[in-house]
Amino acid sequence: MSGEFVELCEVGPRDGLQNEKRFVATADKLHYIDLLARAGFREIEATSFVSPKWVPQLADAEQVLPAAIAAHPGTLFSVLVPNEKGLERALACGARKVSVFTAASEGFARRNINATIAESIERFRPVIAGAHAAGATVRGYVSCVIACPYDGAIPPDAVRETCARLAELGVDELDLGDTIGAGHPDDIARMLDACAAVRPMRELVLHLHDTAGRAVECAERALALGVRRFDGSAGGIGGCPYAPGARGNIATEALVDLCGRCGYRTSIDRAALAEAAGFIAGVFAKSPRD
Ligand code: HMG
Ligand code: MG
Fold first, then answer.
1. Which atom of ligand 1 is the closest one to the Cα of 240?
2. Whose CA is nearest to atom 37 of ligand 1?
3. Domain housing 84
4. pLDDT digits (tens, 9 = 90+) for 260-287
5. 208: Cβ below 6 Å to ligand 1?
6. Are 9 and 40 spatial neighbours (Cβ–Cβ below 8 Å)?
7. Is the pLDDT of residue 1 over 60?
8. Cα(221) to centroid(ligand 2), Å
9. Could you tell me if residue 150 is inside a domain?
10. Whose CA is closest to 125, among 162, 169, 89?
11. Does the C-beta of 140 come closer than 6 Å to ligand 1?
12. Domain annotation covers residue 206
């Protein structure tokens, strides 16, 4: 039992809600965020400043972010920004951390952000510089670190390569997304090992989706390898509208339980987290998908 601290970032309000057919009312999003903040997350991914044509579910980002910051000034609310326009919108709303996002596979980059990987990196250059100039920190997401719904299996070298490009641009944090939840623990270990050549294992963030039901096993292997930062969504909601078949994120409750079983500490109040998960499940139950 190490008692070491593991940082859990809650991404339900962004990754969880972006994939829902229904539009969750702004007031419900804010109540969900409020419950999550009370559960003890130091960082919550609140929304996305992407094109509302691409992700209409998060078109109310201008309402969500300022209200969340005002209600919980001690919580870090990060947001996705795909380009300079997104950065401008996010900074105008008070963002202190933004996330750029690309992929280790060309097929997904094209479908998700309408760019090649190289084009996305060039697009991020002024975004990262602008964020830093404004005093904000930057997460760099790499999607499809194990497999891509369009290109198939992705070699660890391709993931390391995209990580290296983002690191050269100066991202503060690298986040590795198994977007379609395809990973086995051995695949995750090989991929992490490759990326640890770019940033130390304990600084990498692992972002698992639980499509095949192996996400907890993968997180356990990552913990054993020295990863100390994970994303999760309360209740395991989520997916990506541009990754067919992608299911929810690993449930944050499962991550809290795993950390507890393995002797790690988190900042999360498990009962308060369950209340947040119960609330958003209730919102979905009131407005069935079809
Ligand atoms: P595009 O169509 O090539 O962009 O999309 P464009 O620059 O040609 O602009 C088209 C229109 O969108 C224009 O409006 C722009 O003004 C507007 P029009 O002139 O037609 O009226 N626009 C914007 N509006 C508001 N905010 C903006 C913005 N940018 C352009 N920021 C673009 C390119 C990147 C914008 C688009 O592809 C996009 O928004 N993609 C985002 C898709 C997305 O959010 N996917 C889910 C998140 S990623 C994910 O889930 C994976 C992750 O969880 C990790 C993992 O699991 O692997 C992070
Ligand atoms: Mg995701």
1. 50
2. 113
3. 7-285
4. 999 999 999 999 999 999 999 999 888 7
5. no
6. no
7. no
8. 19
9. yes
10. 169
11. no
12. yes
